[in-house]
Each structure stands twice: as structure tokens, then as C-alpha cells.
Specification:
Elements: H1 6-11, H2 28-40, H3 50-89, E1 95-103, E2 109-122, E3 129-134, E4 137-142, E5 146-150
Helix pairs in contact: 2-3
Length: about 180
Amino acid sequence: MPEINPLQSSLDPTYEPPKRKINNVLGKDEFLQLMIVQLQHQDPLEPMDNSESIAQQAQFSSLEQMQNLNTSMESLLSAYQNSEKSSALSMIGKEIEGFITSTDADGKSETTEVSGKVKGVDFTSSPPLIIVDSGGSEVKVPQGQINSVRVVKEATDTPDETDDSQSDEPDTQEQS
């Protein structure tokens, strides 16, 4: 913080103190600087009361803990959002059952059951919308409204009867 020269400010009518950015947020660094300035300028014959000093230190500690908690909460939120996205992406190609809720012109809420194969994910809203092929039409279902997810088993060809590698009989070759 720039210091103001009182002699210069009183003698020079055009003197303007340096502009400083006004910030209405008092962070831990500013709080600590303020505490140090108070200690430097206190009257040595009447020092600051111990209880007042302890109260300020407790406020400083509390402020620091709140800032740490805020940082932790931001990290947790970010991790949750990444987990939510990962979970949504893992549903692609699987069968889901869920529901969508819509409101008609009268303001009545209507719930529609939805089931089908997941074709994709729309991340433009939160929570993500799961794009489902439901009977030939695409339906977007909020991730929180999905009741079940199943792996789709693709139809496979039956094994050829002449293929020996698919035989149920044990291998009878002798080992030497």
C-alpha cells in the first residue's frame, strides 16, 4: 500500500494520492496486515488487551479455515461433476429404464415411463441428459430419473457343429 506524504499533500493543491483498487473483500492477507499495523502503532504504555488480541487471532484463524473449506468444497464439486459425466458416458450402448416428467397447459405434472438403448449424452444441462432410443424416437432423460441400467447382450451366431474348438467333450490328447 503506497504511503501518503502528509507534507506534500498539504503543500501541493494538485496533489492526488495514488489510486487504489477498492476491494470489498477482506482476505486473510489483508487481515494479517491490518493486525500487524495495529501492533506496530499501539501505545507502548497502553498495549492491546490480551482478550482483544486473542479474539483477533481467533478471527484470523476462522477466516483462514473458511477459505480452506471453500477451496475443499470447490474441489469436491468439481470431482462430483466429473464423476457425474463419467457415469453418464458409461451408459452409452446400454438399456435403461427411467421416466420423464412434463407439465401440461393446466400445470399438471405427468410422468412418462421410458426404456430403450442409450445413444448418447447431452451435457448442456445439469444433470446431463441421457439420449435414449425409445421405440424409434429419441428421448432425453435426466440422469437422476434413470431407475435401472442393463448391459445389452448382442445376438451371437450359434457355434458350427463341425468346429472342434467349440466341442463340450474334454480333450483326449495324451501329453508326453
